[in-house]
Amino acid sequence: MSTSAAPTYLPAHYFETKDADGKTRTFDLIDDGVAANNPTLLAITQITKDMWKEKSEIVGNEAIDCRRMLVLSLGAGAAKHEEKYNAAAASKWGRTDWLYNGGKTPIIDVFLDASSDMDDTLTGDASSVDIATEKNLKYLVQIGAKLLKKPVSRVNWETGKYEAVEGESSTNEEALVDFAKKLSQERKLRLAS
Length: 193
What we know:
This protein is mainly alpha-helical. It has helices at residues 39-58, 87-90, 95-99, 106-114, 134-149, 172-192, and strands at residues 13-18, 24-29, 153-155, 162-164. InterPro entries: Acyl_Trfase/lysoPLipase, PNPLA_dom.
């Protein structure tokens, strides 16, 4: 709920929890993109720092085994990529043009597009963060259900295009189940040691 509470579009989210001693902890939350537009990258950075610290205290400066990391990054989707801007035009812009140009906000568009972790073909109301109607939110749930059935894909770093991944789970849904099993196994190992 909190990560979708984009200021001015959707309401902030509030909840409370109580620990075993009855102490109340409150959470006042808005969209995480306000503080970190790529929280996955921040999490990986923090974990890497912790792993380096752990390694240096134990065995020195050997390479970190990144296979120890389990990362699940679910994007909120992105509008179909529109090549709205090009370097030839942008090289002539001043500060104002980067902020507002032809009814668009280039600096914000570039910032958000550059950190988008999921590339799909959302169009119309589904691609707009400012349409929080019940009808549109239900439609987004339907889109999510369809995405679960799609083949697992990853970005080809040379082309920037998503390509099906061979040799792993065949659908996103199966990949999520596999990921949950790995998390469960890791938790059991940690509790046992």
